[in-house]
């Protein structure tokens, strides 16, 4: 498989989260790639939820190896859906996050099939990872018995010299402030929902400090964080707001519990302010001494010709659903920059290297299975 060619084809599909017609076209393109092979391909759809494509070489749902990824992307201008190669970089929406590495997963599937590797192997690609992975949740419920000894997760893009062993727990919280409407000239006759929200957020900052590029940049970044993703309150300038809400994005390390978070929030709320947990997950924490991870790391170092470091990141990953079942999750991706931005790119050689590392790793697992 020409990985870069397939990646370019995938990028040309405008699979912005929620663009179902274009997503279906992309999934059918992938399905056609495996037409006439021994692959079993399913496009899972349930109501209005985002579809998931599931490709495998077995009827079993107990896999030796699964590769996880997603095909949806964040919004972008039209020109970003026509990939551009300049030198060793490929620019476009999804080059780094993560259509190039979806192509890597498809290449691994093709290799397993063509070489009859004695592995139960599958690829799962979702289409709403950028907005909560609700389609993936439904897919996994419909395949409740699915599991894998090893999960390869390429959705941690940025630096091929880093192997991720920890991801934080993303928790989204909506804080709601209810006040009393009054004319802006007589604030003593009302209760300002915006003001109560501000006071609450200030207290939250006592537990979760404000970090920024032009402010505090902690040396130890494995800490709990929050950013106030959206604040909405008030309609016009001369009316005291009677309602305000804030969407908070908490990222918790593995030693911080939901009980800890709730206890902290309870201490911060002003009168008339409440909160609700919109979604919560679980951190992914892998043992750096895990034999599979060390084998993978060895191949990566041999192919790259340099040492690979372990890294911890704040981002979430769909592989958490398998980590809680006991799977070894290997989180590794290629090098690039501009994720979710107008200058998104991936280094082409890093894509090819990830593909080569995966193949070498799968060959070793297959040899172990034979013996």
Helix and strand arrangement:
Blueprint: H1 3-12, H2 20-33, E1 40-44, E2 52-56, E3 62-70, E4 84-86, E5 89-91, H3 99-114, E6 121-126, H4 134-142, E7 147-153, E8 162-167, E9 169-178, E10 182-183, H5 193-207, E11 225-233, E12 239-240, E13 243-252, H6 258-268, E14 273-279, E15 284-285, H7 291-304, E16 309-313, H8 320-323, E17 328-331, E18 336-337, E19 345-347, H9 348-370
Parallel strand pairs: 3-6, 3-7, 7-17, 8-16
Antiparallel strand pairs: 1-2, 2-6, 4-5, 5-19, 8-15, 9-13, 9-14, 10-12, 11-13, 18-19
Helix pairs in contact: 1-3, 3-9, 5-6, 7-9
What keywords describe this structure?
31% helix, alpha+beta, 6-stranded mixed β-sheet, 19 strands, elongated, Aminopeptidase, Alpha-Beta Plaits, 9 helices, 371 residues
Question: In words, what does this structure look like?
Answer:
The chain is α+β, with helices and mostly antiparallel strands and 371 residues long. The protein folds into 2 domains: 253 residues, 3-Layer(aba) Sandwich (Aminopeptidase); 111 residues, Alpha-Beta Plaits. 31% of the residues lie in helices and 27% in strands. The protein contains 9 helices and 19 strands. The strands form 5 sheets. A 6-stranded mixed sheet has the order 1-2-6-3-7-17, with helices on both faces. The protein has a 4-stranded antiparallel sheet with strand order 4-5-19-18. A hairpin with a 7-residue loop joins strand 18 and strand 19. The longest helix has 23 residues. The protein is elongated, with a radius of gyration of 23 Å. It starts with a helix and ends with a helix.
């Amino acid at each position: 498989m020409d990985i870069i060619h397939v990646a370019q084809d995938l990028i040309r599909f405008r699979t912005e989260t929620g663009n179902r017609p274009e997503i279906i076209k992309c999934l059918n393109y992938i399905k056609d790639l495996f037409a006439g092979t021994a692959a079993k391909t399913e496009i899972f759809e349930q109501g209005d939820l985002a579809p998931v494509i599931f490709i495998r070489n077995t009827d079993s749902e107990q896999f030796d190896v699964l590769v996880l990824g997603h095909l949806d992307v964040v919004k972008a201008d039209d020109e970003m859906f026509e990939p551009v190669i300049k030198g060793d970089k490929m620019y476009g929406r999804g080059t780094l996050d993560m259509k190039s590495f979806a192509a890597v997963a498809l290449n691994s599937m093709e290799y397993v099939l063509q070489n009859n590797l004695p592995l139960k192997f599958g690829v799962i690609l979702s289409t709403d990872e950028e907005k909560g992975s609700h389609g993936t949740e439904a897919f996994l419920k419909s395949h409740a018995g699915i599991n894998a000894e090893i999960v390869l997760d390429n959705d941690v893009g940025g630096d091929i010299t880093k192997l991720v062993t920890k991801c934080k727990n993303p928790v989204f919280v909506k804080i709601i402030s209810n006040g009393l409407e009054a004319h802006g000239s007589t604030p003593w006759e009302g209760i300002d929902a915006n003001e109560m929200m501000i006071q609450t957020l200030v207290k939250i900052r006592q537990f979760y400090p404000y970090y920024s590029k032009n402010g505090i940049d902690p040396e130890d970044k494995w800490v709990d964080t929050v950013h106030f993703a959206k604040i909405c309150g008030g309609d016009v300038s001369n009316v005291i707001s009677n309602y305000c809400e804030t969407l908070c994005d908490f990222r918790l390390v593995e030693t911080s519990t939901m009980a800890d978070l709730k206890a902290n929030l309870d201490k911060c709320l002003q009168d008339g302010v409440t909160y609700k947990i919109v979604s919560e997950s679980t951190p992914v924490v892998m043992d750096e001494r895990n034999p599979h991870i060390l084998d993978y790391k060895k191949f990566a170092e041999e192919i790259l010709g340099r040492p690979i470091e372990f890294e911890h990141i704040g981002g979430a990953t769909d592989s958490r659903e398998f980590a809680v079942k006991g799977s070894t999750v290997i989180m590794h991706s290629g090098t690039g920059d501009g994720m979710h931005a107008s200058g998104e790119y991936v280094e082409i050689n890093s894509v090819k290297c990830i593909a080569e590392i995966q193949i070498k790793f799968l060959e070793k697992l297959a040899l172990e299975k034979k013996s």
